[in-house]
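Throughout our pipeline, every protein is held as a single compact record rather than as scattered files. The record that follows is passed on verbatim for readers who wish to inspect the format:
___
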Amino acid sequence: MPYKGSLPTSVPTDPLIYRFYELVSIYGTTFKELIHEEFGDGIMSAIDFKMDMMREADPKGDRVKIVMSGKFLPYKTY
């Protein structure tokens, strides 16, 4: 079962996990802007979340395809 705080260091040292960290570091602001453009101001839920992973054949070497789906939660003012 996944849980918060499972990494032993703030910057991952495992090569695969580091690549995910790198993706968010580089493209995180782009993901945010695209979500805001499509849905408005809010976040993608990591609680109501689904993920699918599959192998994609490619002549240059197989690729990993990951599809993430999280419920959109608009910001609320109180």
About this structure: The mean pLDDT is 92. The radius of gyration is 15 Å. Strands lie at 42-56, 63-74.
